[in-house]
TrEMBL record:
It comes from Alloyangia mangrovi. Gene3D superfamilies: Dipeptide-binding Protein, Domain 3, Periplasmic binding protein-like II. Its main location: periplasm. Keywords: Signal. The lineage of its organism: Bacteria, Pseudomonadati, Pseudomonadota, Alphaproteobacteria, Rhodobacterales. This is ABC transporter substrate-binding protein. Residues 70-398 form the Solute-binding protein family domain.
Amino acid sequence: MTRPITRFSLSLAALLLGSAAFAQQDDLIIALQLEPPHLDPTAAAAGAIDSVLYSNVFEGLTKFAEDGSIHPGLAESWDISEDGTSYTFHLHEGVSFHDGTAMDAEDVKFSLDRARAEDSQNAQKALFAGIDEVTVIDPQTVQVTLKAPDGAFLFNMAWGDAVIVAPESIEAIKSNPVGTGPFTFTSWTQGDSISLTRNESYWGETPALSRATFRFISDPTAAFAAMMAQDIDAYAGFPAPENLPQFEADPRFQVLVGSTEGETILAMNNGLEPFDDPLVREAVAHAIDRQAIIDGAMFGLGTPIGTHFAPHNPDYVDLTALSNYDPETSKTLLADAGYPDGFTTTLKLPPPSYARRGGEIIAAQLRAVGIQTEITNLEWAQWLEEVFRGKDFGLTIVSHTEPMDINIYARPDYYFQYDNPDFQDLMAKLTATTDPAARSEMLKQAQRIIAEDHVNAYLFQLGFPTVADAKLHGLWKNQPTQATDLTGVYWDE
């Protein structure tokens, strides 16, 4: 005999269904524009790697907070010798890599020695050049001895290029990253997404999210459609700023507009004619209307810059007047340099919207003073091979999202090949200086040198818009380093 459905049974079913419906969400689908070329942050210049893995999968001795300050990471504390050349790091106990192996001082030594080795592929090898020796004191203590005091050493150790890796998993790191972070790598569907899962054995505070999927949507139109359809929960670094007002007016969404460390520049190959001539570089700089690029390519989202330094930094000097928009001066300088009829050069553009959209505007501005550009659109892997490593370019547009990276101008073999011994000496003195006031003056001097040399045409500081579900909390608004830190992200109950 079939038992009749009672009112109590219906009420219980409704209660159970209601509980399931209102269970707190603990997964996330977040979109980014750029897919990493591989998954080893210690062996590539691609910031897209850190965008997925920094603080999520990999950790360093120190780490950046959202405001750019330096906090303890895998090192819970450190002692600095009186002469500033010795750092003794005390590691957190009970830290394991995702494969279950213990993380200890030997792994720190391995990571730092690997980064500074002669055959190192680390894109920021210069960060480790000042290390003289790394010594294991005991499993929880490691001493780093420097060749000279370095006022930025703890800052440098927070970079994604300085994360701690293990010898046991290093061979497969590019496709199977094994770190110590609060999320473990689950899978990578190339061309589509990367999935992470909460590390239930994490040594620190367990994140609220149980899993996260990074989807890669490069096309701005597709990004807008996916967000509006709520196929994704958030898009960090939304590539279509013209659509932001529409999201701001929709109660389903929130829009966060923050700052970045991204100095967006029209880089010139100083080692290639005619850009080895300062007059030509100055002519290029005066041909550029920054505000037209900010308005036309970024729909107003960006802050004009006149040197390679972030405007939100207290040591920033506004030097935009040294390269103001003045096409007539540009033509005069070209004539003085021996190019009265201009010249033709290459303009190689990586995928981001600021480059592709900005490139068309810049090409038109340069054409107006007689400089013809042959535009080539490159994917990131091509850009890294041809431009960054191969130095096969005349002009390119890129945003340098690394924090406090003015020291790249002291590296003659860097892709834009600026070689100024006086600047190199200044950077060496800056590194050896710990007094904040003295460092501030040196940084201001450094900004002026590269602005007056017109090493590159400085365009704008990249803004960082994030569009997210209105119920999502804890996403970084600002980008003190290129990262999508999910450790504090959670949903409203």
